[in-house]
Design brief:
It is built from 8 helices and 7 strands. It is of the alpha/beta class and about 230 residues long. The protein has a 7-stranded parallel β-sheet with strand order 3-2-1-4-5-6-7, with helices on both faces. Helix 5 links the parallel strand 5 and strand 6.
Length: about 230
Amino acid sequence: MSRHQPTALITGASRGLGRALTADLAGDGWRVVVDARHGDELARAVAGLPGVVTVPGDVADPVHRTALAEAADDLGGLDLLVLNASLLGPSPQPELADYPLDVLEQVLRVNVVAPLGLVQALRPLLRPGARIVAVTSDAGAEAMAGWGGYGTSKAALEHLGAVLAVENPQWRVHVVDPGDMRTVMHQEAFPGEDISDRPEPETVVPALRVLVDGDHPSGRYRAADLAPAVAS
């Protein structure tokens, strides 16, 4: 009997953690459907990676989510869904009393509504035991001045993941805080600051693989807490 070839779908895969995890899974024999808003950037990011299918588009667009589901269906279903695409909002981050409401609505559409819409579109394709990994932030769990808009969206995403886990025990739903990383989004959050001391996204991937490959129950995790499991 041939070994099952695992399949994943990762949003926001043109850079940062999404790109790093895509490269790691592809190198390990996974088939991976990826998306990002800019098709050229996405194509360059995954060029040469085996088994990767690119579907450029905006996760906030229902038509694009349908296209992602069709790509996953063509591959026979999913073992892993990584909800990584995210929108920071204004840079620098304004306080809530000054936050433009139209922008907040956009942040919530991308960071909360779109992930749920994608789960709904992919529900028939998620195999029993499939992992759903929702990438969150410490701003979703702590009250931080200047992070009210983005933090509110991540807090909502975390609760969404917790409820999905209760309602769908056939899946493992992992909400993961990767910690600070040296990414474009992190630089946008701190314009003009030197963030070279932050770790590269690739350093977080082993912690994510602990959840993807292991038997951890649904719940919220910090990548830093999973790191000892990687070394053991």
